[in-house]
Amino acid sequence: QVQLVVSGGGLVQAGGSLTLSCVGSGRTFSSFVMGWFRQTPGKERELVASIDRRAGSTFYADSVKGRFTISRDDAKNTVNLQMKSLKPEDMAVYYCAASPGIGWSYWGQGTQVTVSS
Hints:
Elements: E1 4-7, E2 10-13, E3 18-24, E4 33-39, E5 46-51, E6 58-60, E7 68-73, E8 78-83, E9 92-99, E10 106-107, E11 111-116
Parallel strand pairs: 2-11
Antiparallel strand pairs: 1-3, 3-8, 4-5, 4-9, 5-6, 7-8, 9-10, 9-11
């Protein structure tokens, strides 16, 4: 089992940057695929980016490709989401999640990202 704690949300102007961090507890952090999701009111939670075990393959939603970068540091049980060139449509509550390989089993608390135009 892993517990995830998210930090780094806040208010940023359009075009600005923000980095979200997610710290996991437990010694099995490296065994999880890690992902960042976001959700806006009335919409389903969407996968923004994910990174495989041992900093393997990454996935990005088309809407964030070239602007967001996901990275992980298993020695620190941390996964980060670096967000650049933020747009108003990036405004959402962002969640960190962990998958043992099938399904997203563990979730961190959400953090609000607000982008002002």
